[in-house]
Amino acid sequence: MVESSVPDLRTRLLESALSIVAESGASALTVRAVAKAAGCSTMGVYTHFSGKSGLIDAIVDSGFDALDAHAAQAWEHAEAGREGLVAVAEAYRAWALENPTQFQTMFAPGIAGYDPSDATRERMWDVFYAHRSRVASVLESADGDPAAWHQTAMAMWSCVHGHVAIELLRVSYATPEIARYEASDLGALIDAQIAAAKVAASR
Questions:
Q1: Mean pLDDT across 61-72
Q2: Contact at 8 Å (CB) between 80 and 142?
Q3: SS3 for 78?
Q4: Which of 59, 202, 65, 53 is nearest to 123 (CA)?
Q5: 154 — phi, psi (to 5°)?
Q6: Is residue 49 within 8 Å of residue 58, measured between CB atoms?
């Protein structure tokens, strides 16, 4: 078995799973492969995660936990309002660029036979609802009908996520010309969404 300096088997298994996906793709993620990489028997995977789907749930859950924590910290340390939303967007990008494999697994698992558990689905939406509350506070509609600002929150997340996803692709497929392009101005993206929300509210 492979020796590891990480004493916690659960952590080793998670790290091993991410390494396998990063190096060989999602199709290579099997209980046997993860156990071998972590230096344990397959029983270790079943004991800690009840199998492959539980292992992937743990990867996704831990990713959303970390992303949520980074966003909350950015919001807390930024000035209220628009600056807070920009700080959260930049934290979102920074975390994704530092953890590309986990980020991509969270939002586009693409792993055959994997169906997220109800708890994992709820964890993802908890993160979105936290984002939605921040957007609502900036739009001064936190006490209003959620439908009035739900779409703005969704559009803002989608816009930032899309640009971050393209940046990740650029890292993988960049030509010398593309590599010289500056990263997206997330502040401008946030401003555009806030302006669109105000126009919609005035109608």
A1: 96
A2: no
A3: coil
A4: 65
A5: -65, -45
A6: yes
Task: Determine the Cα–Cα distance for residues 198 and 191; give it in Å rounded to an integer.
Answer: 11
| Residue for token pair 């979102």 | 92
Residue 31, CB-side half-sphere exposure with 13 Å CA sphere: 16
Domains of the chain: 1-50 (1.10.10.60), 60-202 (1.10.357.10)
Instruction: Give the integer Cα–Cα distance in Å for 163 and 188.
Output: 12
Query: Residue 180 has which token pair?
Result: 């010289």
151 confidence band (pLDDT: 50, 70, 90) = confident
Whole-prediction pTM value?
A: 0.85
The one-letter amino acid at 102: Q
Mean pLDDT of 81-89: 94
**SS3 sequence of 80-128:** CCHHHHHHHHHHHHHHHHHCHHHHHHHHCCCCCCCCCCHHHHHHHHHHH
Contact criterion met (CB below 8 Å) for 156 and 193 = yes
> pLDDT tens, 39-53?
999 999 999 999 999
